[in-house]
Specification:
The protein is α+β, with helices and mostly antiparallel strands and 226 residues long. The chain is 15% helix and 60% strand. The protein has two helices and ten strands; from the N terminus they run H-E-E-E-H-E-E-E-E-E-E-E. The strands form two sheets. Strands 1-2-3-4-5-6-9-10 form an eight-stranded antiparallel beta barrel. A two-stranded antiparallel ribbon has the order 7-8. This is Outer membrane protein with beta-barrel domain.
Length: 226
């Protein structure tokens, strides 16, 4: 990894830890003063979809997100299967043929801004990443030449997600309620993301999240939902 990319990653990591410590102190103070903002904003999300520029294939990923005021800190992992159409003779016979051309792996840290309404969040972020690229080139004899590449990148993403507007009991599979009303819940949304690097890509996916997506009011009667 290049020195500049290493420095950026460590700087973002330090800022994340510092913000978490400050927000935890604010949450403790709010509880002592019986204020309404009693939970931090921290959540994870699973996302999957299709990469359509730079790599053509399915992708899956995982994010851990922490929000302090409007500042959003993210740790991100993505994996993309780089696929292509296979034997043209099979395609002429309407037979699906897929050729494995390799895959991407990305480990990133991002900083951005997140804006909330009662039930929706909109965020955009950018940062630094370490990337791993495997390429597979077919040979005349049917075998493949495989190359490996490691390089830094500039990841970015745009997210929109929807979540519950007040504290409610957590529901397993969105059906079975368990426990008391809680700030912990699920979300659903969309993600447009990519990476500017030696091997850039752009992808669009669906996001399913779990966590605490905003500060929930403890004192209001409307938050005591079923």
């Amino acid at each position: 990894m290049q020195p500049k990319a290493t420095f950026i990653l460590f700087a973002l990591f330090y800022l994340t830890l510092n913000a978490i410590a400050q927000d935890s102190l604010n949450v403790d103070t709010a509880r002592r003063l019986n204020q309404t903002k009693t939970n931090p904003i921290i959540y994870s999300d699973l996302h999957f979809g299709w990469a359509f520029l730079g790599a053509d294939g399915l992708y899956g990923g995982f994010n851990i997100n922490y929000q302090y005021k409007k500042n959003l800190f993210t740790l991100r992992y993505n994996a993309i299967a780089d696929l292509a159409g296979g034997d043209p003779q099979l395609r002429k016979l309407q037979i699906i043929a897929i050729e494995d051309q390799g895959h991407y792996q990305e480990y990133g840290m991002l900083y951005g801004r997140r804006y909330l309404t009662n039930t929706r969040g909109l965020s955009f972020s950018a940062g630094a990443s370490f990337n791993y690229r495997v390429r597979k080139y077919p040979n005349a004899g049917g075998s493949k030449t495989i190359t490996y590449d490691y390089y830094p990148g500039l990841p970015f993403e745009l997210n929109v997600n929807w979540f519950k507007g007040r504290k409610r009991r957590f529901r397993i599979y969105h059906i079975i309620p368990v426990g008391e009303p809680t700030a912990f819940g699920a979300s659903i949304g969309f993600k447009l993301h990519g990476n500017v690097s030696k091997n850039p890509y752009l992808a669009l996916g669906i996001v399913y999240g779990l966590g605490m997506f905003k500060h929930y009011d403890n004192g209001s009667a409307q938050n005591k939902g079923k």
